[in-house]
Amino acid sequence: MRTLYHGGAVYAPEQPATTALLVVDDRVAWLGNDADARPHADAADDVVDLVGALVTPAFVDAHVHVTETGLAQTGVHLSDATSVADALARVERAARRTDGPVHGHGWDERLWPERRPPTRAELDRAAGGRPVYLSRVDVHSAAVSSALAERAGLADLAGWSDDGLVERDAHHAARAAHRGALTPTDREPLHAAALDAAAAAGIGCVHEMSAPHIVPPDDLGQLVRADHPVRVRPFRGAAVRDASELAEVVAELGLPPDVPFAGLAGDLCVDGSIGSRTAAMRDPYADADTCGHTYLDAQQVRDHVVTCTHAALPAGFHVIGDRALDVVLGGLLAAETQVGAAELRAVGHRLEHVELVDADAIGTLARLGVTVSVQPAFDAAWGGDDGMYAERLGVERARATNPLADLRRAGVPLVFGSDSPVTPLDPWAGVAAAVRHHEASQRLLVRAAVDASTDSVLEPGGPATFAVWSCDLLVDGLPDLAAGASRQRCLRTVVAGRTAFDTLA
Q1: Is-contact 270 319, C-beta < 8 A?
Q2: Nearest to 64, CA basis, from 139, 170, 173
Q3: Radius of gyration in angstroms for the set of CA atoms belonging to the chain, rounded to a whole number
Q4: For residues 101 and 134, is the Cβ–Cβ distance under 8 A?
Q5: Which residue pairs from 290-296 have beta carbons closer than 8 angstroms and sit at least 24 positions apart in sequence?
Q6: Which tens digit of pLDDT belongs to each residue from 267-288?
Q7: DSSP-assigned states of every residue in 313-337
Q8: The pLDDT of residue 371 is above 90
Q9: Residue from 322, 421, 359, 316 nearest 69 by CA
Q10: pLDDT (tens digit, 9 = 90+) per residue, 223-257?
Q11: pLDDT of residue 476
Q12: DSSP 8-state symbol, 437
């Protein structure tokens, strides 16, 4: 199949002023201008007039929970609920439509006049005694009903509160109980919904952050077997101490032999989240008498990193608070004494989030070649002097969160993701958040932010993986992302020559 695109703008930094490209099967065969495209049009099976649209490499979302995203899309939407009463009314309507459990996502008690989530008793009444799981926007705590609490034995676990608010071990068990009840047949439409949404957002690849406390092992194998154009890079957040444990974990996932396993990383949690006050901090939170919690120690981090390094398999951790990062760095430095810095760098370990990181820690991450997977949309949602970070941490510590430019200047490899469903599958929003960071010193140029959001370039011989965008003014070949600029609308997403989303046809 030969398709010629012309009459637009093609983002190809090594070949500026490109307005046309030829795709043959799954590869880009030619790039050039419209005048030189005429000979290719005669031999093309399809000729697409871009009418000024922009073509970029398809985006990569480096931190996604696919099943969770599908559940959030099909469950009770709470991100725009205006009060506890509004949330309960939505739960009640959902309970009337099903005989099974009720799932909801996205509540933020800070935005409600009651300044609290629904209680267990309120959920029992609203859902008629059904199991209910309502995740907070950060998915590190939840409100649950009595039926779910009893099913999962939550009352005996750390993080249980009698009002039905769960965090830490109790939250992990609540989520595992709810997700464990999903059959492969239940999960199939959830996967499809999430991957369809990714394609519609111009995303050609997602990094799936699987973990035992999120989804059962067979979820990952089912996901990567799905016949969907959007590629899935599978990560599994499970700690291992030696080669035999590593082999057991990988075998349990049941991945197809032709799918490269991306690593034992992702949501292998060293701590929790700032919003739920479970991220581990050196100093107490400004609005609560706690420093958060750690779930792993430096020795466990060391053993996991050493085992993965010997297997040439990336290791990684969820880490947000500065005290949690101290634990991770202690483990990495201990691993370095066993395997050497060169070996660590060669494997390419990674950390997720890293929201509070000082100059010394940045230097260590750069020296060891650790990739940092960041979510710029977190700053857009919660940064600034009057945002959630300031409320939880105080203004000064809040201003130090998500230092994107400092990380990049030090040479730390950055990749961007959404942590969907925590923030939406919207890569341009992530790019814009990096460009408009609340702290001016941490802002990135548009090109640097786009580079952190993609893993390929458009060039002859390269993969035909790209997205077509309707957008307004271009600056240096990319959209104008100044405040107030219009949003970009995806018109088509192509992954290795397969059309994943299309409104051009």
Answers
A1: yes
A2: 139
A3: 23
A4: no
A5: 291/323, 292/321, 292/323, 292/324, 293/168, 294/270, 294/323, 294/324, 294/327, 295/168, 295/269, 295/270, 295/271, 296/239, 296/268, 296/269, 296/270, 296/327
A6: 999 999 999 999 999 999 999 9
A7: --BEEEE-SHHHHHHHHHHHHHHHH
A8: yes
A9: 421
A10: 999 999 999 999 999 999 999 999 999 999 988 88
A11: 84
A12: -
Return the bridge partners of 479, or none. Answer: 474
- Nearest-CA neighbor of 145 among 157, 128, 159, 158? 128
Task: Report which of 347, 487, 471 is spatially closest to residue 430, judged by C-alpha positions.
Answer: 487
In angstroms, the Cα distances linking 187 to 67, 175, 195, 223, 249 are 7, 15, 12, 9, 21
- Domains of the chain, first to last: 2-58+458-502 (2.30.40.10), 66-180 (3.10.310.70), 184-451 (3.20.20.140)
pLDDT value of residue 474: 82
Residue type, 418: S
Please give the structure tokens belonging to residue 436.
């408009």
Q: Return d(Cα 334, Cα 299) in angstroms, integer.
A: 8
Structure tokens at 223: 């996901």
The reply to whether omega before 13 is within 30° of 0 (cis) is no
* C-beta of residue 258 within 8 angstroms of C-beta of residue 225: no
> Are residues 331 and 302 in contact, defined by beta-carbon separation less than 8 angstroms?
yes
> At a CB cut-off of 8 Å and minimum separation 6, what does 434 contact?
376, 404, 416, 443, 444, 448, 449, 452
Measured distance CA(198)–CA(200) in Å, rounded = 5
CA atoms of 448 and 433, how far apart (whole Å)? 12
Report the distance separating Cα 297 and Cα 326, nearest Å: 10
CB 232 within 8 A of CB 66: yes
Categorize the per-residue pLDDT at 459 as very low, low, confident or very high, splitting at 50, 70 and 90.
Answer: very high
Which residues, in sequence order, are CB contacts of 80 under 8 Å at separation 6+?
106
Ramachandran angles phi, psi of 52, nearest 5°: 85, 0
Amino acid letter, residue 203:
I
d(CA 147, CA 95): 13
DSSP 336-395: HHHH-HHHHHHHT-EEEE--S--HHHHHHHHHTT-EEEE-HHHHHHH-STTSHHHHHH-H
Residue with tokens 């395997």: 339
Copy the structure tokens of residue 62. 């480096």
Q: Give φ, ψ of 467 to 5 degrees.
A: -130, 150
Q: What is the DSSP annotation of 50-108?
A: -TT-EEEEPEEEEEE-HHHHHHHHHSEE-TT--SHHHHHHHHHHHHHT-SS-EEEEEE-
Overall size of the chain counted in residues: 505
The H or E element containing residue 492 is: strand 489-495
**SS3 of residue 449 by DSSP:** helix
